[in-house]
């Protein structure tokens, strides 16, 4: 059974915004969330312990600690929570994982923002602007409308762990947001992550974020994260959070 463990009881948050960094198409959510954690020097706050997740010990440079694979970081000043994951969530545990994480967020009155990439035209120029749209549960539609974030232009399905989180929020009447950005389906897409930050996270959370370092390190990021992106493509479909047009199923 999945459960959350809080490692820093001293942090105080007031209706925080939560951004999730689970691996998905283009690694857009992971890249965006990792950038926020690094830029703000966010504090390790909690972990999601799930027996069905890969039983691995994570470690980071310049730190002796062994960490869990799925971690939540916090920034008191910005009222921000961010989930960082070094592993994918398997289809066998996705429902339990989503319910556990949602319960953790409800206890803290957090507004979850889930992310997904949607495959962009393969012929599009890599420097071309990515489009962003949004969906919501509970009262989230009002937030998206106030920020001029358009709904998707066509019907689709959102799969993977973030799709499961949106479905849990829908069934329980919880307010949450889902941001969908065009992304490269074959490799990590830092530019799409920048779009998520600039056009989605910044206006929703009311924070300032410098995305220049993310853009400047795009080549290095694509090289470092390519192996994870390839594992996601080769894994079962439900392990990867992604939005897909319903035309794919017709």
What does this structure look like?
There is one protein chain. This protein is α/β, with parallel strands linked by helices. The protein has one domain: PAC-like subunit (Rossmann fold). About 35% of the residues lie in helices and about 25% in strands. The chain has an 8-stranded mixed β-sheet, with helices on both faces. Strands 8-10 form a two-stranded antiparallel ribbon. Helix 1 packs across helix 5 and helix 2 (about 95-105) crosses helix 4. The longest helix is centred in the C-terminal third of the chain and has 17 residues, at about 220-235. The relative contact order is 0.21. The model has no long low-confidence stretch (mean pLDDT about 85).
Number of helices in the DSSP assignment: 7
Spatial shape: globular
> Biggest β-sheet, characterized?
8 strands, mixed
User: What is the H/E order?
Assistant: EEHEEEHEEHEHEHHHE
CA-atom Rg in angstroms: 17 Å
Distance between the termini: 37 Å
CATH architecture: 3-Layer(aba) Sandwich
Trace the largest sheet across and list its strands. Answer: 1-3-4-5-2-6-9-7
* Number of DSSP strand runs: 10
- Uncertain segments are none
Share of helix, binned: 25-40%
How many separate structural domains? 1
Q: Identify the CATH homologous superfamily.
A: PAC-like subunit
Query: Beta-strand percentage?
Result: 15-25%
**Mean pLDDT metric:** 86
CATH class: Alpha Beta
Q: Give the class from helix and strand content and strand pairing.
A: alpha/beta
Q: What is CATH's topology name?
A: Rossmann fold
């Amino acid at each position: 059974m999945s459960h959350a463990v809080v490692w820093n009881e001293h942090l105080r948050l007031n209706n925080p915004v939560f951004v999730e960094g689970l691996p998905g198409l283009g690694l857009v959510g992971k890249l965006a969330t990792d950038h926020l954690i690094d830029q703000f020097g966010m504090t390790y706050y909690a972990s999601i312990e799930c027996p069905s997740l890969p039983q691995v010990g994570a470690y980071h440079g310049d730190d002796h600690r062994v960490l869990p694979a799925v971690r939540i970081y916090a920034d008191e000043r910005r009222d921000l929570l961010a989930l960082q994951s070094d592993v994918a969530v398997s289809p066998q545990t996705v429902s339990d994982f989503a319910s556990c994480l949602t319960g953790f967020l409800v206890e803290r009155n957090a507004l979850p923002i889930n992310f997904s990439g949607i495959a962009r035209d393969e012929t599009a120029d890599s420097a071309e602007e990515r489009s962003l749209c949004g969906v919501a549960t509970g009262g989230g539609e009002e937030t998206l409308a106030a920020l001029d974030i358009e709904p998707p232009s066509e019907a689709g399905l959102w799969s993977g762990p973030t799709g499961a989180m949106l479905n849990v929020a829908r069934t329980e009447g919880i307010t949450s947001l889902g941001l969908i950005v065009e992304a490269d389906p074959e490799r990590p897409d830092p530019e799409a992550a920048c779009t998520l930050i600039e056009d989605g996270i910044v206006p929703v959370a009311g924070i300032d974020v410098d995305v220049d370092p993310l853009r400047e390190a795009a080549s290095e990021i694509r090289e470092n994260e390519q192996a994870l992106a390839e594992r996601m493509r080769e894994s079962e479909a439900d392990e990867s959070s992604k939005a897909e047009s319903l035309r794919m199923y017709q």
